[in-house]
Amino acid sequence: MHHSIGMQGFIIAFIFLIVLVWPKELLTQSVEDPANFVRPELWGLTVLEWAYCLMIGSWILTVSGDMIYVLNRKKNQPLTSG
């Protein structure tokens, strides 16, 4: 298994942890007082959610590619009798 797969897993877990502890005051304000709510240009929470969503997708593709590589390598290895 490539080291990048493990690193991606740690990054995904770290981003998800940040999303869990991210302050949610803006979301609460938008629901409780929509008339006085000023929408930010960039929602940090949304960026983090998309980041871990895309990281999970890339992790799945990386694991799939690694599995195909390992299976092809085993298939092409000559059989040795011992």
Polypeptide structure, described:
- The structure is a single chain.
- By secondary structure, this protein is an all-alpha fold.
- It has one domain (3-76).
- 73% of the residues lie in helices and 0% in strands.
- It has three helices and no strands.
- Helix 1 (3-21) packs antiparallel against helix 3.
- The longest helix is centred in the C-terminal third of the chain and has 33 residues, at 44-76.
- The radius of gyration is 21 Å and the shape is rod-shaped.
- The mean pLDDT is 84.
Give the secondary structure arrangement, pairings included.
Blueprint lengths: L2 H19 L3 H8 L11 H33 L6
Helix pairs in contact: 1-3
- Compute the number of strand runs: 0
* Shape descriptor: rod-shaped
Unreliable spans: none
Order of helices and strands: HHH
**Radius of gyration over all CA atoms, rounded:** 21 Å
Q: What does the main sheet amount to? A: none
* Computed structural class: mainly alpha
Helix content: over 70%
> Treating each run of at least 4 consecutive H or I residues as one helix, how many helices?
3
Properties at a glance:
82 residues, mainly alpha, 3 helices, rod-shaped
Brief write-up:
With 82 residues, the protein is mainly α. It contains three helices and no strands. The protein has one domain (3-76).
